[in-house]
Amino acid sequence: MNALPLGPVTFSALAFGGACATVLELSPAPNWVSDPPVTATVVANPPVQVTLAMHRNGKASVAVDFVDEADAATDVGSPLCAATGAACSLSPDNCCAPAACDTATSVCTIAAETGAPDANTSDASNDVASDVGTDGACAATTGSSCGSCGGVVQCDGQCSVATPANLGQTCGVIHCLCPISIPKVIDCSGQCVPTDSCAANCCGKLPC
Fold first, then answer.
1. 97-131: per-residue pLDDT in tens?
2. CA 124 to CA 138: how far, in whole Å?
3. Quick check: is 130 in a domain?
4. pTM (two decimals)
């Protein structure tokens, strides 16, 4: 072979079962191929000796089949689970936790908890007994007043504002210059606050 560049050169070969003119015109598949290619260092003189191992060219007919599967990450129409309030199937239950498929309505619902008054409060009105049924309806008392701090009953039957267990209990005093002592009590936020101000009871003087 002539006109090769000097240095590393990779050699490979294809062998055809026909005349060169036919190969150039029809571009048939080769009958033999070299495997693997051989890399040799070409010098000006002497010519480098290269031997290529030829193997028969095996052939196969391969078909591919593209299966159009729903992608949970991109297919909005095929979510992994059904949201609360959506229609659902019972077998298997396809509702998103913590909801479950209601056997009567086939709708995803969340069961409400009912029970005794909250142990952290002294006012039982904080814990309105819930009558939320398996159909997911709100408590019958939803929106009514509850507790001692202006709360209202929520859909799940709980009071929106918890009443502190020690609401109204004395937690300290402030001493004015009159002298007058103003008691401090726990308010709805759980803070210890005075029931009055020295300014209103001590002729505008500041407390000690």
1. 888 888 888 888 887 644 444 444 444 444 444 44
2. 20
3. yes
4. 0.31
